[in-house]
Amino acid sequence: MAALFQHVAITAGITVRVAVNFMPDQSRVEAGRWFWVYHIRLENHRDDTVQLRTRHWRITDAHGAINMVDGEGVVGETPRLEPGQTHDYVSGCELTTTTGTMEGYYSFSREDGSLFDVAIPFFPLAAVAPTEG
């Protein structure tokens, strides 16, 4: 199934696309836990090769509680993107509220070792009940 990328940010020639889906089958509503999966596509539209080094997430729940997540790479990888290349990965987020938001940035390195930040677009997390029919 192809991802429908709903949110896009472009910084310094790097495009970050996000598709997010609520996962009712993986949520534990009776325990107050809601789970989302997000698919990220990174696209290098620059003329040079870059490598993703770190990630920084700001996750906010419906009560305004903020969880900052910093770490090396994404899902255990530090993808290197040559001009025109893309990298896709999938990860998830669990909240104790039915709604929230995510946003952040990645730090990439250039071939000379210098770093630059790339925005991850703001996107909402909303638990949508399956429609009956």
Automatic annotation (TrEMBL):
SUPFAM superfamilies: ApaG-like
Domain ApaG: 8-132
Entry-linked Gene3D superfamilies: ApaG domain
One of the protein's GO biological processes: error-free translesion synthesis
Signal peptide residue numbers: none
Record protein name field: Co2+/Mg2+ efflux protein ApaG
Organism from which the protein derives: Croceibacterium xixiisoli
